[in-house]
Amino acid sequence: SAGTGMATIMGWANHENIWREGDWKVVGARGNEVKTVYTSTDANAIRKVLDTYAIDFVYYGKLEREQYPGSSPDRFSFMEKVVEIRDSDQKMSYLFRYGSQSVD
Fold this sequence. Notes:
With 104 residues, the chain is α+β, with helices and mostly antiparallel strands. The protein is built from four helices and three strands; from the N terminus they run αααβαββ. The protein is globular.
């Protein structure tokens, strides 16, 4: 998101912590919210987090697969898939649009 100007729930954790004067509670809470987005099977729980931070797009790729084992792009089936590409590891990555363009 740094290069796009679009909102993100959490950037680099240590950088976030420095800007919050060592308040790891905020960073930890946001980390848990990101985990909810990638691991919850409850679309309403995912929507709640995305709405809280006014998120328009969700990316699901190699890092997300590694960071959240057992996760799946199927969790985002209520969103519009706008990009589907094959990664260097030959697995698929996706960009989903959330918001007024989402489909149920």
